[in-house]
Fold this sequence. Notes:
The chain is α/β, with parallel strands linked by helices. It contains twelve helices and 13 strands.
Amino acid sequence: MSEISWFSALCDDDYEQLGVPQLNLRSSWEHCSDIVRTAQLGGFDNVLLPSGYDLGIDTLAFASAIAPTITTMKLLAAIRCGEMWVPQLARQLATINQILNGRLSINIISSEMPGETLDGPSRYARTLETMTALRTLLSGQRLDIDGEHLQLHVDAPRICRDSPSAPPFYFGGLSNEARDVAAAGADVYLMWPDTEDVIAETITDLQTRASSYGRTLKFGYRVHIVVRETEDEARNAAAHLISAVDAATGDAIRSRSLDSRSVGVRRQAELRESAGTDGFVEPHLWTGIGKARSGCGAAIVGTPQQVIDKIHRYEAMGIEAFIFSGYPHKDEAQRFADLVLPHLSHRPL
Length: 349
């Protein structure tokens, strides 16, 4: 059984056609909460709430507002390392987790802050220090850390001491530093789309690295979905999605992301460049969507059965958590819930 999650577009990433902004799809409390409610009613296990400094609305403020209405799902809240004083962050996360009755999970983001320049080793050192500090405090334990970025000697806040619970950490990244951080500090290693052989190699590598720390990892996969009743309809919907995007517009959209120069983003570009003229890099994995967005740059495209079969192939490789998305996100969450979700065996991690 796998965890099946959807995506709420807090970072101004929702369109009917990529690159064509619509005010009613812009990140807002009303729109993003509609996506979350649709996902809950549709039967999803979790919803990713992304984080971006310049784009969209604040993740933790949104999570705290929507949490009282969430009764059957988890929330996967993204946090950016370095953005907040860690003990106060732990207090906020523990509060949201209490509102959710223990159904919070955390997506650790290792990007630079706006206006900041950090080399990869320093940035990932801060990430691991943050993960270690958060896990300690959320577990209700005293924190004593003298690191390169964090020097803290503090008791856990009362809410953490009274209800010690460290939510699972989801984390991704392709560089050697990122993989080592995942092996040392993450619970779920989250991958962006790639060919099945590369995914298998990545899973093997991370299992070996985690074992060297005396740990084990679960594996997650973040990918877009374009599912329709027939394959032609799915391919036509995919083509329509990027039909308004020219090269300049696509470059501008991708460059807005703080992680636009990361190893993972470069790999998504390589995947797109290696695809056939139709944008497919292997059966049903379409890279065209990456022309107009940074980060996760491919989609599973096909009929409900083709999408189900592809998901089952990933599960057989060891993936236990999926984070799906589609455009527009509310409409596609409902379509996925109707056509695909009833045929998957799933439950929260």
